Amino acid sequence: MPRAIYFDCFSGVSGDMALGALLDAGLSLEALREALQRLNIDGWNLRADREVRGPLAGIRVQVVASEGPFHRSLNDIRAIISASSLPAAVIERSVRIFTILAEAEARVHGTTVDQIHFHEVGALDAIVDIVGVVVGLDLLGVEQVFASPLPLGGGWVRSAYGPLPIPAPATLAILASAGVPLTSDETPFELTTPTGAAILAALATFRRPPMRLRAIGYGFGARQMERPNALRVWLGDLDEEDDSVRQQGLVLLETNIDDQPAEQIAYAADRLRAGGALDVWCTPILMKKGRAGVLLAALVPADLEKAAVDLMMRETTTLGVRRRTVERHVCDRDTREVATPLGAVRVKRKWWCGELIGAAPEYEDCARIARERGVPLATVYQMVMGRMDD
Fold it and tell me: In angstroms, rounded to a whole number, what is the distance separating the alpha carbons of residues 93 and 143?
């Protein structure tokens, strides 16, 4: 069964709260630090303290950075992350979060993404926060991210531009762009930060899924409040036998495109996956007058159809999207770790009617080991396959 996480944002969400909650749910602090070293940037340290606030025990995370105020552009941050040796999926998701932040800042200030220079979120601690959350989800084997509606709070917050009303304008721009559901909460503090909003807007589907719980984690924010200033995460496996996807059915969306650059179509496909599509694919096709084109298809839960169609209309040049309902048979899946002389590798196993009928090493783990050890990727695969019965 796919590993999933649910962000229960009863007191909002921020980057440090998310990191603390992941650590409390079982993420190894040492593994997180080791992975973040691949950013190849110095001058930071990650501190995680176990605290008890009222009835709740959890973890408060602080990124301690020697760097003072520092303004970076989106290109600066993209260059830092892209130059790292982190897995490709982690790089892509991290850059996507910063892109969402840059787009929101550009809308708020009436300028372009290229002219935006981050203030708070361009600092070293914010980079470690955001990339750390993405790395943490990857280390925990999370395949799907879900979140509750978000409370925003009220009042005023200090910023590099002076006092700003809560919710911060960038936070509202992010939430509006992604169509995030909100709750009514006028606690006189900032509950959802721009960083927290961008992380969930980029990665999460906003509903609570049926799942088999494996762990719960609480991450504390810096502010001491009368109510628990905490983010709670639920870590578990999607229960595909009872999944609402099966109850509501699935919708296959398709559109033909012959007048758009390939990288823009790839971006639309990534956005569909992040928005909850179960699968997205592109097929080369030959259209009228002999023009080469691409068929973009997405398999989505019925309750996400409207959002997926809206995204396809806005992110592609298409004038129409075909739809039809479909049904499917699904194998159960789980993940186990296999020890090899070169390091541990996750393996996804395939089950049908209670019988193990297939297994495959996790590509990102194998690719990382191949790069670090200087051996062919095929050698790592063979080594893992030879030890799967151990």
Answer: 13
Give residue-wise pLDDT tens across range 58-109.
999 998 887 666 678 899 999 999 999 999 889 999 999 999 999 998 888 8
- Name all domains of the chain by residue range, CATH numbers in brackets: 3-238 (no CATH), 248-326 (3.30.70.1380), 332-385 (3.10.20.300)
User: What sign has the CA pseudo-torsion 72, 85, 30, 194?
Assistant: positive
Mean pLDDT on 261-279:
92
**What pTM value is reported for the model?**
0.65
* Euclidean distance between CA atoms 18 and 220, whole angstroms: 8
What is the token pair recorded at 233? 């995460």
Are 362 and 347 contacting, i.e. CB atoms less than 8 angstroms apart? yes
What is the rounded CA–CA span in Å between residue 181 and residue 230?
19
Please count the helices (runs of H) and the strands (runs of E) in the chain: 12, 18
Cα distances from 91 to residues 14, 36, 97, 149, 244, in angstroms, run 20, 12, 10, 27, 31
Instruction: Yes or no: say if 81 and 124 are a contact pair by the CB < 8 Å rule.
Output: no
Instruction: Say which DSSP state 342 is in.
Output: T
At residue 264, does pLDDT exceed 80? yes
Mean pLDDT value across residues 296-325: 92
State the Cα–Cα distance between residues 84 and 80, nearest whole angstrom.
Answer: 7
Structure tokens at 30: 């040492």
Given a cut of 70, is residue 341 above it in pLDDT? Answer: yes
Residue 243's pLDDT band, with cuts at 50, 70 and 90, is very low
- Asked if 22 and 217 count as a contact pair (C-beta separation under 8 A), the reply is yes
